[in-house]
Amino acid sequence: MKSCGVSLATAAAAFGDEGKKMAAGKESCESKEGSSCLTAEEREALGGLDSRVFGFVRLHEDGARTKTLLGKAVRCYESLILKAEGKVESDFFCQLGHFNLLLEDYPKALSAYQRYYSLQTDYWKNAAFLYGLGLVYFYYNAFHWAIKAFQEVLYVDPSFCRAKEIHLRLGLMFKVNTDYESSLKHFQLALIDCNPCTLSSVEIQFHIAHLYETQRKYHSAKEAYEQLLQTENLPAQVKAIVLQQLGWMHHNVDLLGDKATKESYAIQYLQKSLEADPNSGQSWYFLGRCYSSIGKVQDAFISYRQSIDKSEASADTWCSIGVLYQQQNQPMDALQAYICAVQLDHGHAAAWMDLGTLYESCSQPQDAIKCYLNATRSKSCNNSSTLAGRIKFLQAQLCNLPQGSLQNKTKLLPSIEEAWSLPIPAELTSRQGAMNTAQQAYKAHHSNTEPVLGLSQIPLSQQSLPVHMITSNQVDGQSSPAKKKRTSSPTKNSSENWNRTVPLTPVQQQVHSWYLTPQKLQHLEQLRANRDNLNAAQKLILEQLESQFVLMQQVRHIAEISTGLHKGQSSHLAGPNDEQPPFSAGPAQYLQAASTAIQKQTGLQTLPSNSVTQGAALNHLSSHIPTSGGQQGITFTKEGKPSGNRSLVPEISRHVGDKPNGSASLKGLSNHVQQLMAEPVCSPNHGDSTSPNVQISDNPQVSALLVGKPSDSGDSGACDKVSNFHSTICTKTNNSFASSPSSVISTATPSPKSTEQTVTHSVPSLNSPHSRLHTLNGEGLENSQSSIKTDLPIISQKSGSHVIPSMSVSIYSSSSEVLKACRNLGKNGLSNSHILLDKCPPPRPPTSPYPPLPKDKLNPPTPSIYLENKRDAFFPPLHQFCTNPKNPVTVIRGLAGALKLDLGLFSTKTLVEANNEHTVEVRTQLLQPADENWDPTGTKKIWRCESNRSHTTIAKYAQYQASSFQESLREENEKRTQPKEYSDTESISSDSSGRRRKGPFKTIKFGTNIDLSDDKKWKLQLHELTKLPAFVRVVSAGNLLSHLGHTVLGMNTVQLYMKVPGSRTPGHQENNNFCSVNINIGPGDCEWFVVPEDYWGVLNDFCEKNNLNFLMSSWWPNLEDLYEANVPVYRFIQRPGDLVWINAGTVHWVQAVGWCNNIAWNVGPLTACQYKLAVERYEWNKLQSVKSVVPMVHLSWNMARNIKVSDPRLFEMIKYCLLKILKQCQTLREALTTAGKEIIWHGRTNDEPAHYCSICEVEVFDLLFVTNESNSQKTYIVHCQDCARKTSGTLDNFVVLEQYRMEDLIQVYDQFTLAPSLSSSS
């Protein structure tokens, strides 16, 4: 790599000279710069420290020496970087990022990593860098970017030593993002790995069980929880939380038995949970709910009181107490409890609704309306329409009342404004002892924390304490424990109240304790103006507010000095109407600045949560996930303590009505995730995404050098730093000539007559703060000035190579040259199983084509061919037209008539006669207009397109199809006598349906994926399809899928679809981007929506924005979103007898207009474009941990055996794939031989399918790792090398089976040469 300043070699020599000067006691080392110099021993110690030891090296207690060393190294590096004016080699910034990460100085770590990225063109080869970057993103809740970084680590180095930790964190993030399938896969991958990890195996098993519960798979969850309880030596905290979840499930889930039995089991489980952890406020709360449901009022009340003693700041508990009082006809006590709930959590919709119901029952409709309005403003409210109707009813009642009647009527309850300052019920306030104990524990826990921005200089009694640490004698009189949090009545300035609070579950996430809202500032001014007339309690409040104000000013001043404040940074704190908090920096900035010392604990760092109470969230984080009973939360926490001393601190979840949603809390992952409003902090890939504020450095000059800007550069928002960092990565790769995997495949190996182009041209991101830092061949554009010589330390990382080496062989090398080049690579056990070039970065979705299409081009006409006779169907230009990449879709009209196809063979009647018991997969869906997709309530358009899967037979589905048709005829006859209205089956405009608000929707059943591969059962049907032209046939020599050598159902076999109107095939690309053929049998039509392959990256972004997995989820695009993003959409009707050709990579979704059957299969034209897109998707699937249905490695070798290729581009791509796999096979053989592992010949049988790893589902070629047990039983459960090593580090439990002789592979490789071009078109 070219140096962008002082070379490492020069640095090493200079550093050695510096060491001699130190030994001689030179005066230079006594200076400030000299004091930062590192000795040879210190450099040796630092050599083993990078991101891979994060969480596994202690910097406190016995690790103080390491912390001191890291601090010294950071000072040394920063000093030397300043001296060199930033012109140092990129590796220094990477190491600086690692050291800051280990010191848990995340802003500086992020800045250093950014600088490394901007200087290092092949940054993606450095797995430790990507891992460190992912940890920083994870810390800032930027899940979108953290997921990308972690996936790239696993892609470039599947055997990465922290792969288990990555899988764990990916599982947690996907769980938060509601991508449960991906979450489960990563948790399972973490579970099989025997390497160390932040969580224990039983804690990961708990997450898996809770994942089932979250998905409402209650029987699976119950079984997993019960199996976990059978574990020997189960830690008490894990046992307590498992029993808690089992108890809550039995209380809340009807499927688990009758009410009496369920409640009995629930109480037993919760009592056992409290035996394991008597201090769990959550379990006490759940127990109270159970007692309340069976009428044991006194027991319920005692349990609630215990819950408050154990965890004070629980709006749920207070709400439930209110319900209990209301049921006992104690409205005043109920009112006080509800007020406590909404003071603790302004967005607690259930409490507001219950409070409104209470006021309504006491004939106080005005107060009831105010409460209902507050409930509707809450983002947790899930029945806004019902409340809106109730509000209108009450308002109508008020209008009909005689004027003045309300004023003259005696009120049973105080108004909402008066109730806001009422004391809580007296019997619940005797908590002095318990709270003093909690306060002492808090002091003891943080006794060694460093003074932070003057916080420790304020007497504890005068500090604004976290809500759950406030003692009763610190509250004005007998006021609510939430009184410190409120600043005004919820009905006064209600918009401001709602805008400044972010309702979260299970714990109310509030602004930092010293952060003053406008209402608090106003209150402060009022108290100051009346200072002489205040009573003792008011004077105490004034002192606290003044202390908070001084502290806030200090933090704000420091924050403004350190870094510019970005206006968009705290938009995630805005209210429903996007109003911003009073300070642009937002509480996150202050939290980061003022809470660093409190947060710094052993091992992993706890996440700062934007607008989170100090006590509630500094020591743990909340990852809010819906679970049984509705929108619930699970809190995962981990103290910075040795693993043997972990505790699971329960938190309270929000509840709806009087049914709280079960929550589980698990301490275990300290650097934890916290989801705001069910979304990660950073929205993916959008300019308005928000991210935590990041302070670059205490030294403005170092800050400027780290980000590559002058120190007076002005604003540089953290949102840019976090979001745009990765968007510049995307720009950097996607706009380069060699950005896509296959473009590199096709161009990276020059022919002997050509010269390889190695310069990567990048287009700077327009909104990137680093747009001028893009590099050419690793050399910064800003480095045109002469380098400044300085003494730079070199630290060689000694814990194994984490930068992937490259190998200089080309496709024109012979097999012997390839094997010679590989000869010594296997000795280091290197594993890199992807097909792509060593120099190719991990695949990324394409950016939207530029320039964008004008709006009038977004509905292009669909390419259509009309056939009149058989000759037209076999005319060669038809094949060329269909496979032309410029045509994403082609409709061949009249094909059945031209070829005289007997489509009746595929009619429902014939199918029933042929095989009436044949299996049909059924998808239960909602009947909706074709161009829209609404949520089940019909209130808003969404992308998620859910359907439930079941199975039936052809005969039963045929009966349903016929009855559906008869029912429709009856409805049609009834409507003839009525005014014309749109039916749900008609495609009506978005405008008209938007006004009508569709729903509730009718349920329909779609018969899909009916396998017609058996040529004995379906002989007549399959023979009829041989009449088709060769390029669309199921089997043909020019079809790549015909060379697989085995069946892939639905791809190289025919599948049938039986439809009723509204049946939907959701948005997707075909497996591995192969082309597809679809023929409508009739009698009804189908409507198709098609988007060109170039735009799949845009749709992927929309899926991520909507918490959907582009590859695995069911989604139906919102056309308005696509048109706004300048995405063209082809839209057309497929009539009976029409064939639709979907070209490689085209995105499409389909809805039946009438009753019809369709048949479909995939084909692979022998073109460079098809192979390129197939390989790209193969690699993208690997990055996303998704199985590739088409085994591209296996297919490539079969193509080399069977096909003569004359297209130079296609030949080069296939040859390179062979080269890569040959290299991998040889390298792995040598590694196994070196390790003394025997390779056993196994061979292959005819038609034997390709093999996939049974754990991670990647394709396994040639060398199969099979467990000894599986081998002896001849079941041959295959593992890839990486999963085998994770399961058994020395492979003692595995045998290695060989399927191909190396001589055979060499022969195929050498004999695969470029065939001469044919003079005539095929």
From TrEMBL:
InterPro entries: Corepressor-Demethylase, JmjC_dom, KDM6_GATAL_sf, KDM6A_B-like_C-hel, KDM6A_B-like_GATAL, TPR-like_helical_dom_sf, TPR_rpt
Protein name (Swiss-Prot/TrEMBL): [histone H3]-trimethyl-L-lysine(27) demethylase
Cellular compartment(s): Nucleus
A matching Pfam family: KDM6_GATAL
Skewed-composition ranges (Pro residues): 840-853
GO cellular component labels: MLL3/4 complex
UniProt feature, compositional bias: Basic and acidic residues: 968-983
Record field: compositional bias (Polar residues): 472-481, 488-499, 621-635, 737-770
Taxonomic source organism: Neomonachus schauinslandi
Residue windows of the TPR repeats: 127-160, 315-348
